Amino acid sequence: MTAWVAIGLTAVGCYLAKLLGLSIPPASLERPVVRRLAALLPVALLAALTALQTVDDGNGALALDARVAGLTAAGVALLLRAPFLLVIGVAVLVTAGCRTLGG
Questions:
Q1: Are 70 and 91 in contact (CB under 8 A)?
Q2: pLDDT of 1
Q3: CA distance 67 to 55
Q4: Cα separation of 80 and 86, whole Å?
Q5: Angular region, 81: left φ>0, alpha ψ -120 to 50, beta rest
């Protein structure tokens, strides 16, 4: 029963958030600062999520393992202007290689 209460509260919260977004005057959304923030905020949130998932062990402690090596390899591939699928492939191969060698 608790799960259904949580689902219902989440649905109501999502609806209220959507309603709040629709109630903002259109003129305030056309300002350059708001437009720039709306363009950059998703990238920053995704980068923060990626960083957290890479170095967190699930208990809030720092974990430097194969995921860090894979992310570093992906970063190097991006700096070398590799195509996106190659970047993903490099990250997967380095992570798998580190996990294989490390046990």
A1: yes
A2: 77
A3: 8
A4: 11
A5: left
Alpha-carbon distance of 53 to 77, in angstroms, equals 20
- Residues 78 and 87 sit within 8 Å (Cβ to Cβ): yes
Residues 6+ apart with CB under 8 A from 66: 94, 95, 96, 98, 99, 102
Task: Check if the beta carbon of residue 74 is closer than 8 Å to that of residue 87.
Answer: yes
**pLDDT score of 70:** 94
Torsional sign, CA 31, 36, 42, 44: negative
- Whole-number Å distance between alpha carbons of 55 and 76: 18
15-46 pLDDT, tens digit per residue, is 999 999 899 998 888 999 999 999 999 999 99
Report pTM: 0.62
Distance CA 29, CA 75 (A): 34
